[in-house]
Amino acid sequence: MNLLVAQAQQIEAPEIDYGAIAPVLIVLGAACISVLLEALLPKHQRWAVQLVLSLVTLVGATGALILYATSERPAQGIATLAGAIAVDSPSLFLWATLLVLAFGSVLLIADRSVEPGGVFVAQAAIRPGTIQDRAQATKTGMQTEVFPLTLFALGGMMTFVASNDLLTMFIALEVLSLPLYLLCGLARRRRLLSQEAAVKYFLLGAFASAFFLYGVALLYGYAGSVKLSSIAAAAAGTDRSDTLLFAGFGLLVVGLLFKAAVGPFHAWTPDVYQGAPTPVTAFMAACTKVAAFGGILRVLTVAFQNTQWEWRGVLYGVAVVSMVIGAVLGLTQTDVKRMIAYSSVAHAGFLLIGSIALVPNGEGVSATMFYLLAYGFTTIAAFGIVSLVRNSDGEATHLSQWAGLAKRSPVVAGVFTFLLLALAGIPLTSGFIGKFVVFSAAIEAGLTPLVVIALVASAVAAFFYLRVIVLMYFSDPAPDGPTVSVPGAFTTIAITLGAVVTLVLGLWPTFVLDWAGTGTFLS
Amino acid sequence: MTWVLIALLVVPLVGALVVTFLRKDDTKAKLVAFGFSIVELVLAVLLWTAYDPDGDRIQLAAGVDWIPAFGVRLSFGIDGIALVMIAVIALLIPLVIGAGWTEKLPAGRSQGGYLALILVQESVTVAVFAATDVFLFYVLFEVMLIPMYFLIGGYGGARRQYAAVKFFLYSFLGGLIMLASAIGAYAMASDELGKGTFDWATLVTVVRDADPTTQTWLFLGFFLAFAIKAPLVPFHTWLPDAAAEAPIGVTVIVVGILDKVGTFGMLRYLLPMFPTASKNLAPFVLVLAVAGVLYGSLLATGQRDMKRFLAYVSIAHFGFIALGIFSFTSQAGVGSVSYMLNHSISTGMLILVIGMVIARGGSSQISDYGGMSKVAPLLAGMLLISGLTTLSLPGTNSFVSEFLVLIGSFPTQPVYTILATVGMVLAALYVLWLYQRMMTGPLRGDALVAAAAGPGAVGDPEKKTAIGDLNKREIAVLAPLVVIVLALGFYPQPVLDVITPSVGATLTEVGVTDPVSAQEGK
Question: What is its main location (chain A) (predicted)?
Fold first, then answer.
């Protein structure tokens, strides 16, 4: 007994820099409170309280982030919690990105004006097609568990991008994934599609997690540590067998690429994007992308930069495959959500180009982070618009139903056109600046052929964005076409926020570019 | 006088904004848009007077930082070449608005929206010619597509969706490849100077000394964009579709103005930035140019549709322009630049006249018309004048430029020049044959006869048709063009004086030895 106490006294409690990790703590703490509220509050009060709590949390966490970022702090960042979490400039940038994107997503999630009672089902466990299910479809109750689930996922994402070792990263991966699996299955309409999306995402996600974990194990075998910097140190000039290193790297990267929806690990994306409730799709498309690429950037930069000549060719190929799959299969889609899903696969390819452009001055990292921010806002606004175009069955996502939309609602069509042009990367939108910074970093890193392929893929992808514009503007509306709901305040704010940021970052990107380029990863 | 250039960019945008709010009232929208386009024309005249032909390479320059992180500036300025292009835009837009005064738009479309897009297009196109930052040029090069996409797609003919998307994708792809080259040049600049920049003058000094392989790749990126835009064979296939489907005023803008960005880009960007590659690859470009002359002329002869005919005529003319640019003599260069101006005027006029024919007959098929000079002698005369300037009859403006191109190219490129001369003969064929089929002989053709007195009238050529001659508005639109065609045909000196120093400077940047011989050659 005494021995145990003595041993316990020898273990030093790790130093915790509460100021640095306050944003994550606030989000995760609020998520826990949110669960309690769910259990304690009467049903009719939950929605309002949960919404206020979520928004206050996001604002508070952003405030804590700004407070820390503007205070005196080491320029290269700090590692806290015994080195498990690295709070450096990229972490702060990605956290801020995640928080503002989550703010937009929560607004979309909270909206109850477009679909009476919100887009979420009250009891997801009821089997589709049964009497109970039909009864539930007419009720206006909403599952307010979406709020704590979103906060947990967000907390996981924030931890994920700041994880300084692979084990923390794995736990963060699970924390962010599990709520997302659930959220996918909560759509009020088209229950079967929604449940299919959830199951598919869960099964494939579990596979990907297993890959990731196996990769971690192999890398531990190689380096004797799961710390990213130790892996880099071990890889720099030892006579250990490279087999473990690269087998581990490969498995690890498969797990990460899966989350980032990079082709050929994208198979879940179209189904899940289509089946999930649209606000959740927006949240996944924007925030999960940021988290996954944040993780990829950190792993590649910190742990594998000095072995990049061995693995760069592989990711080069993956980027090409992703862009080609996204651009070519996007052409054949007839559902607007699936189209955006394939577009996100193509965008993941572009992002991967930025991630492997590891130039010494860190331009690839800042370019990719800028792209993530720009893409996230555009996507949230685009899904916000998708949620507005409806017919009696819910959202009218089939492209033919969008014909002649500009005649009925010029504003909605105009904003959506602008967002599509941003996704296509037309100048004066943030999408163009994002592509530009990523491609110029890649050319600097000697990836010119890849950039040319990317440009051709952009042109191909532009075709399916243009097709939607053609449909909206130059086709005659179908007689039984969908109506465009007048959005409530929340959706309006989310769409406006996304569209305005897309425009502003297209015209004056300097502020964000400078901020993204303030520092590199702590290593 | 820097404000003139800025005002030229801003005035049409303000006009577009005002016109957008007049979508309910078509007449007011037309008047306001016309007013703004006249203001723009006055500004362009001011700009012409403010420009000093013997002054700096780039004049009236103004700029502010845009994205300092990449050394991107919003900087504008003009040389003689840009000046004449801006002037011709400002000249054509009021005429386009005037010519389309009574044009019927597709159901549900308002004049307000149409004219706003035209004014936006005017502003962006002026900006493309005035940009002196490569990044800014690229941005405007792509932004220029958006109003045009909506103009073709929203107001065009039956296959407008196809034509609009094809137009957009061709140019967009070309632009993207150019972007890759621009970034490559930027990367070289940041290696060499320590800080990246997109400033045109700085990039020229950095890139022109690059090794030939790099230059070749960068050249090809820019070249593809300009060859699609110009368009050179075999990158031309978007133009006939766009020209055929666009409403007539938009055809004037596409064929008369937008295309010039391609040849302008060759002079402003390809030659000075990549002199070695330009010289090495000149034979390749010349083959495309001559192929364009011959192919365009032959296909123009064979067209049944007047608007597609116009597109192929332009393709032939762009062959001449490219021939002059890549012969690297200042005579040919001056010829090419004045050709760019004169092509806008001649072809613009031809398109407007053909638009008036189509407005009467309601068909763009040549075979639907015949013997029209009997009922519309003035119209026939105008078609003849615009046709003759298109085939470069001596005494018209185009003759001066075509002649300069040919005699300037001959010393360095005799074979290509002789081949291109065949194009002149073909031009006489396609223009005169068109005139003969449509205007001479007995009154015939479905469009004319059916417009007479009901269905029974078909086949009875003696019956009077309801088709009338030019009205006052149409005469007012065409008269200035006739004056300019003849004036520049007999006295081209004012224009040549403006462009000769700029062309000379361009050729000096390429490192060609005879930059002043154009002065003696005239």
Answer: membrane
Q: Which amino acid, A454?
A: A
Question: What pLDDT score was predicted for residue B514?
Answer: 61
Taking 70 as the threshold, does the pLDDT of residue B456 lie above it?
no
Q: How many CB atoms lie within 10 A of CB B95?
A: 21
**Minimal Cβ distance to B169: which of A444, A463, A509:** A463
Length reported for chain A: 523
Give the Cα separation of B252 and B307 in Å (integer): 10
Q: Provide the phi-psi class of B157: left if phi over 0, else alpha when psi is between -120 and 50, else beta.
A: beta
- The one-letter code for the residue type at A319 is A
For position B452, what pLDDT does the model report? 53
C-beta separation of A326 from A461 below 8 A = yes
Q: What's the CA dihedral at B37, B40, B41, B42 to 10 degrees? A: 130
Q: What is the rounded CA–CA span in Å between residue A174 and residue A188?
A: 25
Cis peptide before A74 (omega within 30 of 0): no
Q: Is the dihedral of CA A287, A426, B274, B283 positive or negative?
A: positive
Q: Report residue B85 as tokens.
A: 């292009």
pLDDT per position as a tens digit, A487-509: 889 999 999 999 999 999 999 99
Q: Which positions in chain B touch A452 (Cβ < 8 Å)?
A: 177, 180
Enter the tokens of residue A436: 């530009």
Cα distance between residue A114 and residue B268, in whole Å: 53
Spell out the residues 6+ positions from residue A6 whose beta carbon is closer than 8 angstroms to its own.
Answer: none
Q: How far is A426 from chain B (nearest CA, A)?
A: 7
Residues of chain B in contact with residue A407, where contact means CB-CB under 8 angstroms, are 108
Q: What is the pTM of this model?
A: 0.91
The residue length of chain B stands at: 522
Domain tally, chain B = 1
What's the mean pLDDT when you consider all of chain B?
A: 89
User: What residue type is A486 in one-letter code?
Assistant: V
* φ and ψ at residue B446, rounded to 5 degrees: -60, -40
Q: How far is CA A92 from CA A505, A509, A522, B78, B135, in A?
A: 19, 18, 12, 45, 30
**Bridge partner residues of A335 (DSSP):** A398
Q: Do B180 and A510 touch (CB under 8 A)?
A: no
Distance between CA A359 and CA A354 in Å, rounded? 10
In this prediction the ipTM stands at 0.88
Residue B465: the pLDDT is 59
Under DSSP, the state recorded for B511 is T
3-class DSSP state of B399: helix
Domain boundaries, chain A: 13-516
pLDDT at B208 over 90: no
DSSP-assigned beta bridge partners for residue A391: A394
Q: How far apart are CA A109 and CA A153, in angstroms?
A: 14
Mean pLDDT over B128-148 rounds to: 94
Domain that holds residue B349: 2-521
Cα A115 to chain centroid, rounded: 25
Give the A-side interface with B, CB within 8 Å.
407, 421, 426-428, 432-433, 436-437, 439-440, 443-444, 448, 451-452, 455-456, 458-459, 462-463, 466-467, 470, 473-475, 509-510, 513-514, 517
Taking only the tens place, the pLDDT of each residue in A272-305 is 999 999 999 999 999 999 999 999 999 999 999 8
**A399, A440, A465, A518: best to mutate for the B interface, most B CBs within 10 A:** A440
Q: A390: which strand partners?
A: A395, A483
